[in-house]
Design brief:
single chain, alpha+beta, Aminopeptidase, 2 domains, 12-stranded mixed beta sheet, 12 helices, about 40% helix
């Protein structure tokens, strides 16, 4: 069977496949791919076992990342929590993987990286020479039940009580995608990344997401006496809402604004017909965040990132270089960290 290469942004069949395929998520969407290209210059490509003119029945999407700092590689997909191959058979998946390995070799890329949420990929990956590069967890809240049942399933002390505390505190919320809301969100986002000694994602990334993802994107900001104290950004694809970014001002944590905003987003998702609320990936070593999300979804799904070839550099997020870099960022003022983020993020992927 012949494998074809397509441009998933320009080929209208890709959007149709994303709409139909049960494993497709917001990270496969044309809007997300366009934002990656517009912000970071990544070139999206997809391989398919379908003919050049027929309906797409399979697809494996990548971005070409070409960096003088971190090298050339094929990633599926950069800055995306997860991205399953859109295949219905093991045979098709093997063909697409072997073809992508040949492309990697011909283009002299350092490695391929796949981020499948489907745990069944493990056997296929190992058989094709992939190795595990990083491990995360994904918490997905089931909304296919009554809203009161969803609320009762949340941890009584760490979630329910904090949501009620926020309601008693008289917090207000604004929701949308206006420039004012983006400004409030980004102000809190820079503060939060600073607490974690990390540079913030470029402002233009969020502006491009707003422009290209349309009504599927919402920013929610919580205010206390007109001061923005917490914010989240969510995306929607089909019947799933994805919580992608969250931030807050730590001095107002006592109000419980983050759980309250998440619950407001969950209520809205349920009213809009969503059946799942994806709370995003969490590093296996991020004990505090894992504990927080476990109070919403006690049994998260394991998420493994896979790289080929086997001698590809493993994830180095916990190495001495990373620790030294975080120490350096911790000493920078917010303005300098923001500039560093604009320069560095396209090299990270």
């Amino acid at each position: 069977m012949r494998v074809c290469q397509i441009n998933p942004i320009e080929d209208p069949r890709w959007a149709d496949l994303v709409q139909r395929h049960p494993k497709a998520s917001v990270f496969h969407s044309v809007g997300w791919l366009q934002a990656l290209r517009k912000t970071y210059g990544y070139d999206p490509i997809a391989f398919t076992t379908s003919s050049a003119s027929g309906e797409l029945t399979s697809g494996l999407v990548f971005c070409r990342v070409n960096s003088w700092l971190t090298g050339r590689r094929l990633v599926s997909l950069p800055f995306s929590d997860h991205c399953d191959p859109l295949c219905d058979s093991r045979y098709d998946l093997d063909l697409l993987i072997r073809h992508s390995q040949t492309v990697r070799e011909n283009e002299h890329s350092r490695y391929l990286e796949l981020r499948p949420l489907d745990e069944g990929f493990r056997q296929t990956g190992i058989a094709n020479g992939f190795q595990a590069a990083a491990t995360y967890y994904v918490h997905v809240l089931d909304l296919d039940r009554e809203l009161d049942d969803v609320f009762r399933g949340l941890d009584r002390d760490s979630v329910q009580r904090r949501i009620r505390r926020s309601e008693r505190a008289g917090l207000t919320e604004k929701c949308g995608s206006s420039e004012d809301l983006l400004g409030a969100f980004y102000f809190l986002f820079v503060k939060t990344r600073g607490r974690h000694s990390l540079p913030p994602t470029p402002y233009m990334w969020f502006r491009n997401l707003i422009q290209l993802c349309g009504d599927g994107l919402e920013i929610r900001v919580a205010y206390q006496s007109e001061n923005p104290i917490a914010a989240i950004l969510t995306l929607r694809c089909k019947d799933v809402v994805f919580y992608k970014y969250g931030c807050s001002d730590a001095q107002f944590n006592r109000f419980g604004a983050m759980p309250w905003l998440l619950w407001r987003a969950i209520e809205s998702a349920k009213r809009g017909g969503a059946t799942k609320f994806d709370m995003g990936r969490t590093d296996e070593d991020a004990s505090g965040l894992l504990t927080f999300k476990n109070h919403w979804v006690p049994q998260p799904q394991r998420l493994v990132y896979w790289r080929f070839p086997e001698n590809a550099m493993a994830d180095s997020s916990h190495g001495w270089k990373s620790k030294l870099t975080k120490r350096m960022f911790s000493l920078m003022p917010d303005r300098v960290r923001t500039v560093a983020g604009r320069v560095m993020y396209r090299h990270i992927a």
